[in-house]
């Protein structure tokens, strides 16, 4: 794995932990922080296929601006903490690019118990690419999206030497 991939993966884990901390208990946040430092097992092909289909279903609903269907892809826990109106507001104000995406692809998957982290790349109609991290849960064979966030890719900079 290249240094840039490791840096991007670390950034994804930190961003996701921060995002989830607002939506979860402190115990879950502490566990997610500890887990992000340890190597994670890969998902099975069945899990990748199922989670990918769920993510693509929500993205397709967004492209039709069908917020109600997109909201239905969220976990029961997510929906119990946010109304449809709040969901629409969050997407419209911070994730508007999802409503007019040109393409999207689902990449790597990391599994931890019934929780799954997926790398997702969304390309907006403008051509701007948005690397994202989707957090899904699977309970009793039912998928649900807990959170999604845009992940800023870090650019490595050369150390600067002060001019003396």
Could you write a compact summary of the structure shown?
By secondary structure, the protein is of the alpha+beta class. The chain has helices at residues 3-21, 26-37, 45-63, 67-72, 76-81, 84-94, and strands at 101-112, 115-124, 129-139, 142-150. Helix 1 (3-21) runs antiparallel to helix 2.
Can you walk through the features of this model?
With 164 residues, this protein is an alpha+beta fold. The chain has a domain of 110 residues: Roll (Nuclear Transport Factor 2, Chain: A). The chain contains six helices and four strands; from the N terminus they run H-H-H-H-H-H-E-E-E-E. A four-stranded antiparallel beta sheet has the order 1-2-3-4, sandwiched between helices. A hairpin with a 4-residue loop joins strand 2 and strand 3. Helix 1 packs antiparallel against helix 2. The radius of gyration is 17 Å and the shape is globular. The N and C termini lie far apart (38 Å). The N terminus and C terminus are likely disordered.
């Amino acid at each position: 794995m290249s240094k840039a991939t490791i840096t991007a993966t670390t950034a994804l884990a930190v961003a996701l932990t921060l995002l989830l901390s607002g939506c979860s208990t402190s115990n879950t946040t502490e566990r997610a922080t500890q887990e992000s430092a340890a190597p994670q097992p890969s998902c099975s092909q069945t899990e990748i296929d199922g989670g990918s289909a769920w993510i693509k279903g929500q993205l397709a609903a967004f492209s039709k601006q069908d917020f109600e269907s997109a909201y239905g892809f969220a976990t029961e826990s997510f929906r119990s903490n946010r109304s449809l109106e709040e969901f629409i507001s969050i997407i419209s104000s911070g994730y508007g690019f999802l409503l007019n995406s040109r393409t999207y692809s689902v990449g790597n998957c990391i599994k931890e118990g019934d929780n799954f982290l997926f790398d997702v790349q969304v390309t907006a109609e403008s051509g701007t690419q948005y690397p994202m991290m989707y957090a899904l849960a699977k309970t009793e064979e039912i998928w649900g999206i807990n959170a999604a966030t845009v992940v800023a890719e870090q650019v490595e900079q050369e150390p600067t030497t002060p001019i003396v």
